[in-house]
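Q: Give me a protein?
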Amino acid sequence: MTELDQKPNANTVPATPGVHDEEVERIFGLSGALSASIKGYRPREAQTEMAKAIAAAIAGQSTLLAEAGTGTGKTYAYLTPALLWGGKVIISTGTKNLQDQLFLHDIPTIKKVLKAPVSVALLKGRANYLCHFHLERTLQNGRLTSREDVGYLRDISRFMKTTSTGDKAELARVPETAPVWNLVTSTKDTCMGSECQYYQDCFVMKARKEAQQADVVVVNHHLFFADLALKDTGIAELLPSANTVIFDEAHQLPDTATLFFGETVSTSQILELSRDVLAEGLSHARDGAEWANLVAPVERAARDLRLTFPQDSIRLSILQIAPSSPFFPALETLKDTMDAMIAVLEKQAERAETLELCRVRAIALATQLHDWRELDVSKKDSAGKPECVLWVEAYSTSLQLHKTPLSIAPIFNKQREGVPRTWIFTSATMAVKNDFTHYVSQMGLWDEPAKTWPSPFNYQEQGLLYVPSGMPLPNSREYMDAVVDAALPVIEAAGGRTFLLCTTIKAVKHSAERLREEFQKRDLAFPLFVQGDAGRTELLERFRAAGNGVLIGSQSFWEGVDVRGDALSLVIIDKLPFAPPDDPVLAARIEAMEKKGLNGFVHHQLPEAIINLKQGAGRLIRDETDKGVLMICDPRLISKPYGKRIWQSLPAFTRSRELAPVLAFFAELKLARSGQFPLE
C-alpha cells in the first residue's frame, strides 16, 4: 500500500531507512510475534510502515504527524516502537475510556507479546480519586438529603477500605455522574496538600509517585493540558524526564488546549466558596465575624450578576454586551463584596487550615474577576501573552466569564521547547484530503513531517453513501422533520441497527420524540436509545445487546465509539457539523484570520467541519466484514461549491441520491445474513 500524495505543506517522512526497520518488519510480519500471539491478527502494510515511521521519529528525537485511516491498527503501530525504544514514554489519549482501554488491554497485550520489561502507570485527574479527608468530613457532616446518595456514600466508604488505587472507575455501582462524588474527592482549590493528615495515604499522590517511577505513563489530553496550564496534575514533574510523548486522538488537541490555556471564573464557584466560608467560619471562628452577614452580599452579588442576562442560555463576547448593560456595574459590585470578604478572612485564616484554604481560594477568584475585565483584547497583554477573546456564557443557574486565547500555537510551541524529545501526533482525522494545513496552523507544527496511511477497508464494496434528494435547506423550520421522514424507510430497511448523529441537543430531543411516535404508529419494535437517558457507556452496551436498536446522540457519539458487526449498519448524520456562527471564540478567530487576508470559512470553518464529519462517518465501517450505509441528509453536500471538497474527504463509498439502491443494498445484506447467498 502506498502513501497518499501529500499537499506541498505536508512534508513527508525522510525516505532513509530507519535503524529499526528490519526488526519492525519481523514483529509485524506473517511469522512475527504479533501473528504468533494475537488471535485473528493479520499483517497490514500500512500498520508496518507506520510503525517504522514512528520508530524512526523515536530514534531521531523528532516530531511526526501520523494520520492512519480506520482499520490501520495505529495503536499497535505506536505501542510497539514506544515500548521497545521509546525510553520514558507519556501516552495521552482523547478520553478516559480510551485511557482505560490502553492501560487494561492494549499495553499488557503488546508488553506480553514483545516480552518488554517496562513498568506502566495510569494517571488521571484528581477528581477521579477518592480523598480520605473529604470522605471523612462528608461522613461526619451527614448533610446528604437523598436516600440514594446515602446508599452511595455507604458503598464508597466500604470501597475505601479495600481499594489500592482509590480510582472511582473501579466502583461501577456508583454512577460516575452521582453528585456524591463531588463531596468525597478534592479539587485543586480544596486540597490541603502536605498539610493534610492523610498526605502519606493520598491516592492522588500515590498515583503521581507511580507515574514518576514508571517507564510508560498513560494520561488523557484534559490532564496533560490542565497541568501545563494549572500545574496541578503531576505532568509538570513528568514531562522533563520524558523521551517520547505520543498523542492518540490528536485531532482533539486544539479544542482541549484552548480550554485549558484559557481561564474561566464562574458564579457557581463563588457561591460554593461562600457556602464553605460560612461553614468553616461558624466551625472555627464563630466569634471572629458575623459570618452570615459577610457572605450574604457576595451570594446576592453573584446571583445578581447571573440575572443581568434574562435568557436561559447565552454566549456573548464582551464587545457584544451593550456598554449600558447592568452586567458591568453588577460585576463591580461582586468584586467589591469579594474584597470585603477577603479582608475578614485575612484576619481569621490563621485560626484553622480550612479557613486559610478559603482565603487562598477567595484571593484566586477575586484576582480572576479583576483580571478578566482589564485585559485589552485588541493586542497582546503586558506579559506578552497571545491575543485573547473575553466572553460570557450563561446557564440556567450560573454565569461563566471566559478568557480564551485566539491561538494555542505559540503557547504549545513554548511547551515543546527545551530538551529534545520525540512528539508523535496520531489520529484517523487530522488532514483534509491529505492536506494537514489546518491542523498544523492550529498547533503551530509548521515544517514538521506529516504522513497519511489510508484505511485497508474496501469502502466501495462495504458501504454506500446516500444523500437524499429533495431535502429542504438546514436552516428551514421543517428541516428536522424532513430528516426523520427521509430516515424512516432507511431505518426500517436496515432493521434498526442505526446511529442518528445530530449536531445539536435540540435535534436529538426532537428526533427522539418523532421516532417514538412513528415506531408506535408503524408497529416497529426497534428499541430507542437517546443521549441523556443514561451514560454513554451504558447506552452503547444496551445498543449492542439489543441488536436492532436506534441510538440518537450528539457530539459525544460522533467519535471514540466502536460498534462492530451487525448491530450497526446505518449511520445517519442530520447536517454538516459547522460550528454555530454565534460562537464568540469562532467569531474572534475568523476576524483575526480575515485581518491577515485569509478566508475564515475556507481556512477554518470548512476544514473543522470536514474533520468532524470524518469522525462521525468513521463510526460505520469498523472492520473488514462490516457493511452499511452512511446517510448524510444535508443538501449542501451536493448544492454548494464546497460540497465536493467535503465528500472527497470521506471514505470512497459507492454513492447514491435515490432511495431504491439503498433499499436494495439492505435487502441483499438481509439475505446474506440469513445465509441464503453471500454478498460479493
In short: Confidence is low (pLDDT under 50) at residues 1-16, 376-383. The two ends are 23 Å apart (CA to CA).
